[in-house]
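Dear support,

I submitted the protein below through the web form. The confirmation email said the job was done, but the results page showed an empty box. After a refresh the structure appeared. I'm attaching both so you can tell me whether what I see now is the final result or a partial one.
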Amino acid sequence: MDDPTDEESLNVAYHALLSVPVILFSQLIIRVLADLTRNKFRNAKPDQMPDTQPWPLCPSDLLPNGMQTTIEGLSFWGDKRYTSGDPISSIVTLDLAANLASFHTPFARELMRPPYTLSLLQPLAQLEESIMVPSLSEMKSPRMSCLIYEREILPVVGIIEAVLYCDRDGFIEMLVNTKDTVLPVIERLTSRLALLPPPVWGSHMALLEGFAAMAKATKDPQTGGFIIPDSATKGFNRAKAVVENRLFDIRSTFEVMLPVRKGGCWNIDCPNSSGSSMPKLRLCGQCDLLRYCGQKVRVIFLQFLIC
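What the results page shows now:
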């Protein structure tokens, strides 16, 4: 098929024909992954047949077509050119990618390779569309506006967070390489989110301000690490203060506890999770919520927060 127009028309037809079963199947996978601890696959049942074994048993069971093919397939189903204006397919695809990245660290690392289609470019396209929704004054109620933002923005934030917690330096490098695209979108989005009540959106404001600060980082020629300028962190600190000063209700508290409990070592610079080794999963002896590989790693992380 040499005509790009014919190929695009065929892709639109594929989406129209198969989007509903793909969305349904994706949501089923999301539900399964939501109950799993990061990088901890299920154990095989010796008394069960292969078709009735728990899923997933191993990386090849999770991604039978390989990581690159999976990313290409997800990028296809998340491509807004083929969705005929319906954002549901893109949103569910990003949500599935976020859950895969949160569960399987190597998949998250693969997402950070150029051209960053699934990890950054498609999420930004979804954010751009969300920004263009009617202004809050045109909506019937603030509650309705919050529901729209929750449906269209949270999955996007989810995949970006999943990549960030996998490899902070790799994430910063990705933002720096695409800052000309990233910064205008974040600036417009934060200006819109600022109109929503802080108890609902304060944490997301802080997160987006943090992304903007990372995108302005420069590379240290001596260490090779990234340096975030102090001027770039002012907005993040202001947004963070709003979050710290708010009173969490019980539901919000448990919504935060669940992903934290599932994750690996909370220190994203943990030396035990570098390279190909997986983050340790046992709980620190000094707490019953956040996971650390040990007391030393926990102290290093707390010192980083204080600084």
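Response: this is the final, complete result; the empty box was a page-load delay. The two ends are 58 Å apart (CA to CA).
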